[in-house]
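Tutorial handout. Part one gives the primary structure; part two gives the three-dimensional structure as tokens.
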Amino acid sequence: MTAEAVRDTASGTSPKSAARGEAGVERGDHPLRIALLTYKGNPFCGGQGVYVRHLSRELARLGHSVEVIGAQPYPELDTEVPGLSLTRLPSLDLYRQPDPFRTPGRGEYRDWIDLLEVGTMWTGGFPEPLTFSLRARRHLRARRGDFDIVHDNQTLGYGLLGLPRVTGTPLVTTVHHPITVDRRLELDTAGSRGARLSVRRWYSFTRMQRRVARRLPSVLTVSGSSRREISEHLGVPRERVQVVPIGADTRVFAPDPGVPEVPGRIVTTASADVPLKGLVHLVEALARLRTEHPRAHLVVVGKRPEEGPVAEALERHGLAHAVEFVRGLTDTELAALLCGAQIACVPSLYEGFSLPAAEAMATGTPLVATTGGAIPEVAGADGETCLAVPPGESGPLATALGRLLGDAELRTRLGAAGRERVLARFTWAAAARGTVERYRAALATSAEPGDRPPVTGPSRRRGPAGGDRTDRGTGPRTEGQAPAEPERAEAPPTEAPLVAAPAAAHPPVATATAGRTGASMTTPSRDEPTGASG
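Part two.
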């Protein structure tokens, strides 16, 4: 273990000695020792943290040992399940509240990676995917032999290149969706040349992610839509991308007859005030809806924006009293909020999966959702398990919301059908089983000659000293043969990802002091840097 790493054991026992999980390891297969990497793992700040928490729990319940290796905000694990542990691999935590974009004290610097992290931030960059990948590489190299499989949760940093050779362990990577999608949507809405430049700088780390993704041996994603986008945007051949859907914790997100229904209540989640989430279109739809349904009101699980399109729409339509923002909800509190709503809404322009849709459906709350990205794969057919509307249009959204508010029988039917769909297709237990299948496939492939996938087409990359070189693919290699990356791949291009600096008429919703703001799989919000979700 490297000097800066600090290991906690969530269950109070080592994962190597913990009792096997409740479901047991698959017959004839040995339990796996899994390193699960996540540069942002707190489940209260975005979908990647939700993914790590629930997947690690279900993998441990299958009888595997799971060590989550993460940076701030640190992952929160379900401590009642044996076999889970957390290793803290700290960054400089430059985006922490209440002093985001802080300058560390001289005594905080430990090595050149820290200097790179601060220097990238100072020049308007977002360094964490790169710097976490470098720290994780160093940590895993020092612990060679401790794990059977390394699973990266969308870091896609240069430190991953050649990692199986360094660690002696196969690498599997989850890409929830390409962040280039977020970049495109934000560029489409940027109103000035300066704003477009800021967006390009913010998302420039996607160049690194494209280069890394093309060279990864095994990529998992959460939907067919994301698989297509990964192939098109990142250049990864479709045959190297496997779909393992995720889902809802159906033991928590379940109907609760004891929660009273609040007339007119609509619930949505918005983990970041970005165009991708489509919240401004829902606000516009609410303004239309209230002309016919004056009791209609919106509860947003997320932070109230102080400026920008959503704040402007709230002021323009005089909706401050009809829209409430709540933060700090536990899963249990979020489930209760959904159970008390008449409608759940997902207005996103694009989602790689949509955990909010799955969780709402699991509670039996009827859903109105757009057809953006993978949302139809989760929400199902219009009129059967949800009401579906085109993304980015407030008119159809208002019509669908009004239809549901006025038809109790339709709400009941869609709510019941939605829950059945989630139970049949989208649970974390099923996600864990599917993920283990991909782990074992990666282990089997790594034991065969010629396991390294060829590079797809020529790619311009910088060598460790910053000099450009072109890789045109070296073809398959046999076990033990060195990959094309240099030995010191942890000295990556100095090119870094850049980022721009930074009284109700309805019953109020109680909030906690710290907690969940949604389940986005997107990049960190510039308005909420501590809410980075990758």
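Part three, for discussion. Residues 261 and 340 are 4 Å apart (CA to CA). DSSP finds 16 helices and 16 strands in the chain.
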